[in-house]
What does this fold into?
Amino acid sequence: MKLSSIKQHLEAVPGAKVQETEYSKKGYLLDVAVSPEHLVEAVTIVDREGFFIETITGVDWLGEKEAAVKEAAAKAAAIAEAKAKAAAAKAAKAAEEAAAAGEEVPPPAPVEAAPEAAPEPAPAAPASVQIDDLEAVYDFNRYDEFCRVVIRVRTPRNNPVIPTISHIYQAAHWHERETHDFFGIKFAGHPYLVPLLLPEDADFHPLLKDFNS
Amino acid sequence: MRAYAQSTCNETFVLNLGPQHPATHGVLRVKLTMDGEYIVEAEPVLGYIHRMHEKMGENRTWLQFMPNTGRMDYLHALAYNHGFVCLVERAMGIEVPERAEYIRVITSELNRISSHLLWFGAYILDLGGFSPLLYAFDDREQILDLLESVTGSRLTYSYFRFGGVCDDIDENFVAGARAFVTRMRERMPMYHSLVTKNIILMKRLQEIGPISAEMCRKYGATGPVARGSGIDFDVRKHEPYSVYPNLDFDIPVYTECDSMARYMVRMDEILQSLRIIEQALDKLPEGPIMPPKAPKVIKPPKGDYYQAVETARGSLGMRAVSDGTNTPYRLKLRTPGYSNLIVFGEACRGMLLPDALALLGSLDLVIPEIDR
It folds into this structure.
């Protein structure tokens, strides 16, 4: 089985996160995330195993980290709110019980408790220096047996540099030029990184999420 | 293989092939560095018909992108339709009624034949033979009429829908398709005796334009280009989609690696497509053409998805990244012609210019699909 063998080899790459995916849902079998330093190593393994290159592309994850922070904050707030509600309900129940027992009821106490609990998750906010990622996605497949492997590399958006693989797979010459056109990812070591599909003097990258024509 | 450049002097000159050259079929430009009649270096220059379909995908809903798919590879538009609907169906888990799948296969295979016929006519035209084009267009016209009757358009189809197809086929279409299968089977021997066995054609194609299997692998070439180099790779068999597993057909493979091998692969593929159409017409079940509970709102769950289909030119890959909204977050189109064209730079080195044109034609380039 080619899948288990390539999985084993790629797991040996330092820092690689290898994950098998369900074909019917995703359309590929193996999802591998590596750091830019280890990309060439991973691609060399894929090449040695006899895979062919399908394509290289990118994804711009602008706003992903802010969204993650917001989501975490929202989650924390939701938990706190739930806690406060539970506390309030408990207090109310206690009060009810007390009332049922025929004693004097102190209503303001639980109402005050709730707003105190809510502002607690605030400290997670200072996210202004977070830099989002650009992701390069490499698709490989085999001619003899279906085995689509996806390799992902992330690089910071303000200085996107990824080593070239054009010396391993010649097709990368064009795919990397195209990805540079669209996303501005610099492929270090690429011998001829000039616009391929865009005009020759293009200095814009249309697939960036903050691009406006 | 043929004699290659043996440079006796160091003088070279630059020759522009295209973007308005009859042999390049559309707006491809190749910057050739020539040593006399021999090619030293070739650099294809793309982008003359680049429309940024991938950005358009991010600016419109999933369904609104459907017409775009028919406008990339205008010769096999239904395969692009097919790739896109399969991608969304995979992402959303939509079940497609069997009748719709059969209709998709029948129309898509008819479209494949029409694409191969146009390539056949135009390719012989490149090589200097005019009349085969007229024969090929005669047959192709039959297919376009058939497809027009069911899809409403002649070239840039957007006929498939998420979950099925937009219109059912009727008895006239079935009868017309059957008549075409019979007609085409009779025409093929004529093509072979008229063109394939022509000594001039054989001299122009045999042992010219070598592309090895290892080159295909390094450049990611697929489709007839790879199959002409002895690689038994076809997405319809390799990574089956739709109802192709229910149908019996062969993958033509030639091991000569030359332009003739790629020519023969396509000619044999026409016969295989006829076999597929005939079986699919026999097996065509009754029933709905859209699922009873087709989703009205197309919002694939968060995640990324890949779908490959076999077009007339090779493996088309579509990758979608969804953020759960009604618009794709990212839509990547891996077009087969693009990968096949990269090979040209290396394959034509040291070749005579007319031989290189024969090689370029044998790659079956459709520039709007390459430039997207």
Notes: Chain B has 14 helices and eight strands. Chain B touches chain A at residues 46-47, 50, 52, 54-55, 58, 87, 90, 93, 216-220, 226, 231-233, 238-239, 303-308, 315, 317, 319, 321, 329-330, 332, 334, 338-339, 342, 346, 371-372 (CB under 8 Å).
